[in-house]
Amino acid sequence: MSAEPTRVRGRRPPQGDPVVDRAFALLAAFDAGHRSLTLGELSRRSGIPTSSTLRLAGRLMAWGALERGADGRFTIGLRLWEVASLAPRGQGLKQVALPFMGDLEEVTRQHVLLAVREGTEALLVERLSAHQAMDVLYRVGGRLPLHSTGVGLVLLAFAESSFQESVLVQPLTHMPENTPVSPAALRRTLAEIRRDGLATFRRRAPQPLVSVAAPIFAADERVVAALSVVVPQEHAEPRLLGPAVRTAARAISRGLGARRAIGAPPA
Amino acid sequence: MSAEPTRVRGRRPPQGDPVVDRAFALLAAFDAGHRSLTLGELSRRSGIPTSSTLRLAGRLMAWGALERGADGRFTIGLRLWEVASLAPRGQGLKQVALPFMGDLEEVTRQHVLLAVREGTEALLVERLSAHQAMDVLYRVGGRLPLHSTGVGLVLLAFAESSFQESVLVQPLTHMPENTPVSPAALRRTLAEIRRDGLATFRRRAPQPLVSVAAPIFAADERVVAALSVVVPQEHAEPRLLGPAVRTAARAISRGLGARRAIGAPPA
DNA sequence: AGGCACAATGCCGCTCAATGGAAAACAACT
DNA sequence: AGTTGTTTTCCATTGAGCGGCATTGTGCCT
User: Fold this and answer.
1) Same domain, yes or no, for A120 and A218?
2) Residues 55-94 of A with CB under 7 A from strand D
3) Cβ–Cβ < 8 Å for B216, B126
4) Residue B6 has what pLDDT?
5) Nearest CB to B75: which of A32, A82, A87?
6) Nearest CA distance, A138 vs chain B (angstrom)
7) 8 Å CB contact of A140 and B88
8) Burial (CB count <10 Å: 0-12, 13-18, 19+), residue B83
9) How far apart are CA B265 and CA B208, in angstroms?
10) Do residues B158 and B214 share a domain?
11) Domain count within chain A
12) Is B13 exposed, middle or buried (0-12, 13-18, 19+ CB in 10 A)?
């Protein structure tokens, strides 16, 4: 009966995720270490078959979410950057903060960081660094741990307590040194930060440094971001840095519409 | 015959664009004047029926491309900003340029702009502005005309000649004043810019200002961006600004890997 | 408090856009 | 010319996406 070889081409394969999710999976295949990808890499990293990857990537290119160089490698497109710059917690925040960050940088001549909380990490929204500043730690758009950076501690200290607990439950370590963090000590640190409206974080490795961070309040009186300066240990005069950071943070809060923007305890 | 009311629910409606295009149409519904949208607004601005908009927006939220506030309004999500920050022509460029832009700002105490070409316009990648600087003109992520801004003229002057012609063919006007641009004069201006590696653009309204711009070269020796300072007319000493901008632009080019980065004519 | 307009969400049966394996075209190596 | 890996084209199938409609929620003007 099967004289004819009956083409089995066309049998619809089992499907994966919905199209939209796949499209964004393509975008998520890019990271700091992989800013440009070939079709094959894109396919492997996103887990989508090559042919589907090509079809989808083609659509993303047509819109401008991806670009393709002369060598055939894909990169994130400028059109995506353009709409993404409308993110209130990204560019919107940065726009208000940047001039004040510039002031801080001029005074300290080191690094000035602006970060927000995203999930269980801090996301670096902006960084100003003088030429003569110490080696760079984090890049803009990158993620920082909440429990072992100045900005992270501030964001954690002013987060909802339910979220704090979920973080404190997990085992935490300071990363380059790989030393464990005591939950009790961290709890005490967070209380101090809330009391002072200021966090001071010291790190030994890779270089000894001090980070002084303060919260930034939005119009609804909640903490939306953290501002900090990072200076080398020997350079440090935290007693002088504290007021400077707090003042800048307060100025930014006022720029965001906060009225009673705190930064110091009522008494 | 039609005794039964025969439910016509379910008849598949005529479809619009493919899903992926629609998803990005949702993102494109946001702009500088509309950073947050209700479901209805999002639906109207993207041309997608409400129910479909809700379903799609839900998926975008699950991924983090959109966020929804307590008031039900949608905004661009931070996760999108995060991947978009990997765009080589956006953040990548900015990362190299920022320190040198900072130097320029400190000297001039006014605006420093960094822009790339995107389609027939310039896209503002970064802007530094001192507090005491004159009123702000453009925002980061916004678009500028090629033919009536300093950075735009540089990008146009160093673009492929086929593209230049396509621009020169169209009728152009300087915008706030609404005066027409003479193609012959523009052609001469572009030739001068190529010769000098420097553009000087003056504008009367809304305030008299001078913009001095220089090209930034990438590793392949092509112009990928333009750098400029914008200062008020009375303040201006273009003879001094020129070398400063050119030096900074050259430093950035070198940072991008350009070896023979020009900025002045060979002789 | 009733009526009106608009916004947001839930529901569901129909179909066509999206699907991935196969194979061809292309490239870069021996 | 053979081997290996990447990119692109082709296509028969089918479940994910479709939007009209109904319902509920929310302000605003009588």
Assistant:
1) yes
2) 55, 72
3) no
4) 40
5) A87
6) 12
7) no
8) buried
9) 29
10) yes
11) 2
12) exposed
